[in-house]
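In pairs, describe these two lines:
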Amino acid sequence: MNIFAVKIWDDERKRCTFYTVQWDGASDNETDKFFAKYENKPGFEKVSQQLLSFILLSIGDDHGAVDALFNRFENEVTGLLVQGKVRLGEFTYYYPSFPLRLYALKITEEIVVLFNGGEKDGQTNQTSSLNVKWTEACQFATRILEALRTGELMIGEPHRKLTDNIGGEEIIL
């Protein structure tokens, strides 16, 4: 795997800090690439906005990265949006036949790394055009989890931040 950076994508939410990844030399991070592709694609404007709202409001502000909202397990990553009907307090989340997937790695209830994704146009990730982005997300996740295990990447203070092994916020893996 090539060199990539783990960068803050949004740290202004009440309950969760969102990170993303960016290839060395790339002008955009993977999460921004996803939303740039779908926010103006005919037929996907509304669902792209629903997904963004789910991430920023439901996870970021209302609940944090609780297990119930990360229930679509796809090997090393989770596919967002939530699978099935999920009720949390007064909120019910239900997105039958949602056409998009954005891959994420939940590190804690306060830290999530968002990757890229795409249109769910097959029965499985392996038979869908999502295969490349899913495989890539799994590789990013594996590298991040290994860095956490070895201490190359750490959960800093406050507990909503990732740092390198000397406390720096510039994280290159």
